[in-house]
Amino acid sequence: MQRTRRTTAAFALALAISSIGVPAASAATLVRGSSMRWHPATATIARSGVIKWKAVDTRHTVTSYGTNWSFSRSLAAGSSTTRTFNRRGAYKYYCTIHGSVSGGVCSGMCGKIVVS
Description:
The protein is mainly beta. It has a single domain (about 25-115), classed as Cupredoxins -  blue copper proteins (Immunoglobulin-like, Sandwich). It is about 15% helix and about 55% strand. The chain has one helix at about 1-20; strands at about 30-35, 35-40, 40-45, 50-55, 60-65, 70-75, 80-85, 90-100, 105-115. The strands form two sheets. Strands 3-9-8-5-6 form a five-stranded mixed sheet, with no helix packed on it. The protein has a four-stranded mixed sheet with strand order 2-1-4-7, with no helix packed on it.
């Protein structure tokens, strides 16, 4: 009986501490680079969301294009990088090894992040 009370009290204390308002860590949305494509090609996240790009099969780059952001990372096979997006909008990127941009149009390994 006394053990049950201690367990109940410990559970109640843990519940009270967890509801103080400490924000939970949000999981990153994963975008995988493989087979010369970004998977998914378009990822939609909420404002202040995190994108994690991972080079699965070979070396890739994550390079922004357009006027609303600047970002460039080189990823060895198996490595990853993240970025938090705090502003709404569409953010385009491509792999400079497996894609290209000409006249604002991307071909090859291109992707887009939509922040709502």
